[in-house]
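Morning!

This is the sequence you dropped in the shared folder:
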Amino acid sequence: MERIRNELEELQRAEAAIYRIRNLFAVESHLPHGGNTTLPKGALSVQIEDLSFAYPIPVGHNNGPDLHDYEESAPDECFVLHNISFALESGQVLGLLGRTGSGKSTLARLLLGLYTPQMGTIRLGSVALSKGKTKCLQNSTCFYSPF
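The structure's back. Tokens below.
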């Protein structure tokens, strides 16, 4: 009888997990769809020009943040990345070192098009990231976060 009770508890936990997974699959992406330009094939150069990014700040901190109620812009002191510029030729490697919270993963997510910068331009090859097809970008890149 004890074993049956344990199995029922395990089934209930599995059912709850399946419910959460189904809800996750039902979430629609809010990523920008990008443009109509196809990215060139092969290894691409990367150019970042005057890139600045700040995370959205929740409006009305009294009752906790509402996921749909954020300010679009932030004051200069809230920028995680400010006026970043660099260029990498195709095949060139760049290592980013820095303390926790210094913007390394944020920069990678910007390069993948997961975040949209407030200012600046990211180009892969000769194509501005905002003009490239999102599907092309997704098929051409990967990011492994250690977290």
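Headline: Residues 2-26 form the longest helix (25 residues).

More detail when I'm at my desk.
O.
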